[in-house]
Amino acid sequence: FPSHDRLEQVKLGGVGGEQGWLGRPKPALLRTHYGTWNEFVEKGLRTDVHPPGIQVFLYYWNRIFTDRAWWIKLPFIGFSLLNVFLTRLLGRRLGMGSSAYLAALLMAALQFPVFYGQLARMYAPGCSVVLGLSLIYLQGKNALRFSWKRMLLQGVLLALAAYIHHLAALSAVVVWLTGLLKFRRPLTWEWLGAAFIGLLLFLPAMP
């Protein structure tokens, strides 16, 4: 049976007369078509249960460029391609050798990442953020010194995960908590500092 997302693709048309490319993202995209920022916040963000990150991105992306289907899909396809590279890099950092290429191949060929990677939704960006945090964890695992750069990058990625999707945020917390419980000082302070930066950056989205 076709999935709910595919049924929505059949039933819903795209912005600008293009049919069947948005699926469930169509209502999310239409919520960005407001004349003012205050109207967008009231009618576009507060009526959605998802975090505001992707909505805000689409709001500015459409206003700066265009609402043509291929242009809206472009950054999300870019994240999907990035995920293939990050998967391979993560596998190599884990010492998987040829298995890293197999994992990247699966990321590039399986139906789930291919289908959801082309939707203008939070799936591909959320995966990129979690993979990035996993790479930071592996770098910290082999580190001996406190790194301001790593702490700042981790804090930004934690905030992005919270802005993108609840599941991405949960996955990010699991990766962060693994490092916090495993590492000792001074990396413990680095991980706590990253969490503080992430919370600070997420404050504007808190109710």
Description of the molecule:
The protein has 207 residues and is mainly alpha-helical. The chain is 71% helix and 0% strand. It has eleven helices and no strands. The protein has helices spanning 4-11, 25-30, 37-45, 53-64, 69-93, 98-109, 111-117, 123-141, 148-164, 166-182, 187-202. Helix 5 runs antiparallel to helix 6 (98-109), helix 9 (148-164) runs antiparallel to helix 10 (166-182) and helix 9 packs parallel to helix 11. The termini are far apart.
The outline comes out as flat
> What gyration radius follows from the Cα positions, in whole Å?
19 Å
Helix-residue proportion? over 70%
Low-confidence stretches: 1-26
Tally of DSSP helical segments: 11
The N- to C-terminal Cα distance equals 39 Å
Q: Profile the largest sheet.
A: none
Q: Report the count of strand segments.
A: 0
Q: Overall pLDDT, averaged? A: 80
> Structural class, from secondary structure content?
mainly alpha
The topology string of helices and strands comes to: HHHHHHHHHHH
Multimeric state: single chain
User: Beta-strand percentage?
Assistant: under 5%
